[in-house]
């Protein structure tokens, strides 16, 4: 899994790099295609009008709908339209790769969080199972054995060792769990016997 991340980034970089020659080919096709020539000229003139209008407005000129902007010569308009198509292609490819990488990173993070939650639930389930087992054993000993104090002390020792093991496990998976010393300090301050 660790090798997949650099491979994905390498493929993304390759796609971005390949998009530039493809954009140049689009520009060449646009300039030499009689079929689409008028569309590229219209696009080039529209971009020119937009550029002039924005330039005038940024310099404080009042621009109305009646303000006329002279069209570019057909050759320059064709170049501008074809250039725009090529640049738009490069930017769209770069944006697509960026969105893909972002989505991939989010999915990876979600899988990581889910795995941590599953590990936490497994540890908690095991902890609950063991506590229930120890409680059952303590209850059974208290009812049946005449020397329950000795056996109860043995079970308490087992319980304390298990609790220390669980606390270490929980701390390893980054759960905010008090240490054994903190738990003992809390128990002694509350007056509850472990």
From TrEMBL:
Coiled-coil spans in chain: 106-144
Xref: PANTHER family: OPTIC ATROPHY 3 PROTEIN, OPTIC ATROPHY 3 PROTEIN OPA3
Cellular compartments per GO CC: mitochondrion
Lineage: Eukaryota, Rhodophyta, Stylonematophyceae, Stylonematales, Stylonemataceae
Identification of the protein by name: OPA3-like protein
Swiss-Prot/TrEMBL keywords: Coiled coil
Keyword flag Coiled coil: yes
Naturally occurring in which organism (per UniProt): Rhodosorus marinus
Top-level taxon in the UniProt lineage: Eukaryota
GO terms under biological process: regulation of lipid metabolic process
Family, per entry: Belongs to the OPA3 family.
